[in-house]
Design a protein that fits this description.
Layout lengths: L1 H12 L3 H10 L5 H10 L3 H9 L6 H13 L3 H10 L5 H13 L3 H10 L5 H13 L3 H10 L5 H13 L3 H10 L5 H13 L3 H10 L5 H12 L4 H10 L5 H14 L2 H10 L5 H13 L3 H9 L6 H13 L3 H10 L5 H13 L3 H10 L5 H13 L3 H13 L6
The chain binds one RNA strand of 18 nucleotides through helix 1, helix 3, helix 5, helix 7 and helix 9.
Length: 404
RNA sequence: CUAGUGAUCCUGGAGUCG
């Protein structure tokens, strides 16, 4: 029984869901542990939901595994629903919820969960740390890092990533040099930190210096090139990488898209062994950005699902095409909007000289970030409203951003 | 650090300026 379950988990961690299913069905008898392992090994949220429905019995692990499916799919409302419905919760259940808000960069909700949970352990501290990092609150992350009762390699790596992801590459380097232990993740973090900061040479150097690497390493090196439109180098990395996953393919796809090689992009897209929302969006956005709005629309309508990003990608291309009327119509039609969507609409109004409309929309935005402020202020400045722009500049500080 | 199921760290898609 134990060895069956061990094999099942092996498939689960290799994402070999079909093999897991086959094994599960061949098992002479299946206990609850086997069912739970199979739940985690499912291939998609939809399959997991269906499988969860047919469980003969459920324990806390079953519920938490299902909740984790929702968390990984970023469906926090469903996760909350699970959390409320389940008969009992333990620290891991709480921790899974915290992880969900952490990934979304929602530091307030994360903090609320963190403060409500019955106890803390190293994992929950790490999750809260990472929530601050994700939200860009590096100082809070540092404070927590120092305050935690002990730090393990995950804490160090999270803190390291907090620095690289906020562009503090010098601090990251110092931290890296002073860490008690370097794991593969630490190396990968530094590699992609240099890559994102545009220090491609340094990234390359690390890549060569690494004794062991993983698919993540290859993908990080790939995106060091795709980020800056180096199609040639990117495809060389792609060719030489020993394994490829969805991220590998999508990274190369977006390199082609960025460089405007739409025909290559399409060929690659058709060759991809699997696609998800992000790969669909990359191609659709490229079509839209290069003026092929029809193709973008037809691609989008054949997509299996849509989210804020895919909607916004097509919308923002339309809003930049000069057709303000069509943009207004689409803006109202989009089922989900976020600050990016709103900002695109504000920019479109401003660029067409409709400052009053832009201002009204800006005031009505549910969330404003630094980019939205900059868009509004530059809109005012470019339309020769220096005084209003200055007033707005004051508002940026009031909103708690540091203006640049 | 070494025997079975659930939680935390690194890689891909959209907006402004650059």
């Amino acid at each position: 029984m134990i060895s069956w379950n061990t094999m099942l988990c092996g498939y689960a961690s290799n994402q070999r869901s079909a093999a897991a299913k086959e094994l599960f069905q061949k098992m002479p008898l299946r206990n609850l542990s086997a069912w739970n392992a199979m739940l985690s090994a499912e291939s998609s949220l939809a399959n997991a939901v269906a499988f969860f429905e047919v469980f003969p019995e459920r324990d806390m692990i079953t519920w938490t595994a299902m909740l984790t499916w929702y968390v990984h799919s970023r469906h926090m409302l469903d996760a909350e629903r699970m959390f409320d419905q389940m008969p009992a919760r333990d620290l891991i259940t709480w921790s899974a919820m915290l992880a969900g808000y952490s990934r979304l960069g929602n530091a307030d909700s994360a903090r609320r969960v963190f403060d409500s949970m019955p106890q803390h352990n190293i994992v929950t501290f790490n999750e809260m740390l990472s929530a601050y990092a994700q939200a860009g609150h590096v100082e809070s992350a540092e404070a927590l890092f120092r305050r935690m009762p002990l730090q393990d390699h995950v804490s160090w790596n999270s803190m390291l990533a907090a620095h690289t992801q906020s562009g503090r590459i010098a601090e990251a380097k110092t931290m890296f040099d002073n860490m008690p232990l370097h794991t593969l993740v630490s190396w990968n973090t530094m590699l992609s930190g240099y890559a994102q900061a545009g220090h491609t040479e340094q990234a390359r150097w690390i890549f060569r210096a690494m004794a062991y690497c993983s698919l993540v390493t290859w993908n990080a090196m790939l995106s060091a090139y795709t980020l800056f439109g180096c199609v040639k180098e990117a495809s060389e990395i792609f060719q030489s990488s020993p394994a490829k996953d969805l991220l590998t393919w999508t990274a190369l796809l977006s390199a082609y898209c960025q460089a405007g090689h739409l025909e290559y992009a399409k060929v690659l897209f058709d060759k991809m062994p699997e696609r998800d929302l992000q790969s669909w969006t990359a191609l659709a956005a490229a079509y839209a950005r290069h003026g092929y709005l029809e193709d973008a629309h037809s691609l989008v309508s054949s997509m299996p699902a849509q989210d804020v990003v895919s909607h916004t990608a097509v919308f923002s291309a339309l809003s930049q095409s000069g057709n303000l009327e069509a943009a207004k119509v689409l803006f109202d039609q989009i089922p989900i909007r976020n600050e990016v969507t709103w900002t695109a609409m504000v920019a479109a109004y401003a660029q067409n000289g409709h400052l009053a409309q832009a201002g009204r929309l800006f005031a009505a935005m549910p969330e404003k970030d630094l980019v939205s402020w900059r868009t509004m202020l530059l809109g005012l400045a470019e339309n020769e409203r220096p005084r209003k722009a200055l007033e707005g500049f004051h508002g940026v500080k009031l909103a708690g951003f540091s203006p640049r």
